[in-house]
């Protein structure tokens, strides 16, 4: 049993079952025992890997898309903001790739929003020499034009789950069964925030809400709406959540999310429609599969250029990384990207306007 399991069991025994969001927040961010608070999960002995860790091409192409959006808007003084920067690899690749964009490094400052002290240390090392500041929350962002990026950040935010029961909903809560932490269902309630889901769900269907995504998106979208900028968000998920997507990863394998609280990475698929809604009045792009986005940004040309100076094992790994990022069987379609910009402003390159069904929700 983990130390955090003992703490959670005492709490549940004393005050009753807790929501999945409370459970997830404790498991990921408890200052003493939380998964992110206590380790670097992306390191050599980590539990998972991400697109920027797979190849420098991911950050380079996203960086150039953001830089072009910045040029399109007159190259103002502004902030390059990343939420949940992990090992700082994406930002390091963006910063290197934009070195040749005239004025970009002079007029942009980097702001990283990171909850984990361990990862802040890794980021500081990775970005030595760049103008970097850290914030705890996105709502602390200064009022300025913001070019925002987040990769696998929103999937780490705590979710709540609700099971449809007639015209009401029962919430998934974490309680005790004997000595074990066990999910159960709360009594039925009618919920205004899920009224729009009554039309597309049936009895017994499960839907997820990510309460923390709302203030995060509102903070970013507010800066962009008032001062300009754009956002690129990449994650696994879909336009609209349906079904149980809560999962645990331990040692690169799926695990029981209730077995070792604090020791496994817990995530849920991102509900991109929710993000786009919270970002109103910004315009949202169509939801773009990662493979298509990277192709539109020219990953094939970049991959062959890099391949020219590679041989043997390095070349083999480079080609495998290219496939992993773009192939439909790998990350190419599971991962999606969404861009946001002021209504009327051009979207960053690689993105296209939403189709009618997405815009209408
Ligand atoms: N973007 C990186 C890392 C993804 S892992 C990559 O693609 O490699 C998730 C990141 O979000 C970690 O840096 C984690 O510490 C951070 N994080 C998780 N919850 C957070 C929160 N509520 N506030 C700020 N950062 C958070």
Structure description:
There is one protein chain. With 361 residues, the chain is an alpha/beta fold. The protein is globular. The strands form three sheets. Strands 2, 3, 4, 5, 10, 14, 15, 16 and 17 form a nine-stranded mixed beta sheet that branches. Strands 1, 6, 7, 8 and 9 form a five-stranded antiparallel beta sheet that branches. The chain has helices at residues 3-15, 20-29, 35-38, 51-54, 56-72, 89-97, 104-107, 117-126, 213-227, 272-278, 290-296, 299-307, 312-326, 356-360, and strands spanning 18-19, 78-83, 108-113, 132-135, 146-151, 160-165, 168-177, 180-185, 206-209, 229-238, 247-250, 253-255, 265-267, 270-271, 283-284, 288-289, 335-341. A hairpin with a 2-residue loop joins strand 11 and strand 12. The mean pLDDT is 95. The protein starts with a helix and ends with a helix. It is built from 14 helices and 17 strands. It folds into two domains: 3-37 and 160-209, no CATH class; 39-158 and 210-360, Rossmann fold (3-Layer(aba) Sandwich). 36% of the residues lie in helices and 23% in strands. The site of S-adenosyl-L-homocysteine has 20 residues, from helix 4.
